[in-house]
Design a protein that fits this description.
Layout (H helix, E strand, L loop, with lengths): L7 H4 L1 E3 L5 H10 L6 E5 H17 L3 E8 L3 H14 L3 E5 L2 H11 L5 E5 L7 H6 L6 H7 L1
Parallel strand pairs: 1-2, 2-3, 3-4, 4-5
Helix pairs in contact: 4-5
Amino acid sequence: MAAAPDRLADRLIVGLDLPSVVEAERAVRDLDGLASFYKIGYRLVFAGGLELARDLVADGKRVFLDMKLLDIDNTVAEGVESVVRTGVSMLTLHAYPKAMRAAVAAARGSDLTLLGVTVLTSMDEADLREAGYADTPAALVARR
């Protein structure tokens, strides 16, 4: 694991939870010198944010793709391999054991940090029951 960054600008992750690349680029410009690590999620990715992620990496910035990948193991592995090629620093995926193992194997040898999502923070016990789980959120997190 990499050592913790020294500068505050390198330790703060700014969420670019914006509807367009133009707005995200403006936010990055406005934060120049104050932040160098940015989170890009679905909303921005589907508005052209993957190219923005590549541009940020090329500009020396770090990028966290909050994609919460979930699929069969080899499809997750192929997705992780593609993400590795972008040069981003972090990626989220659902913490299903077989898919996690495949993702770890696909990221091996790269600088990509994988973050496993065990339970979405918005889910409560009723949501889990409705989805077919008998566990509480805490128990499901511990089990995964």
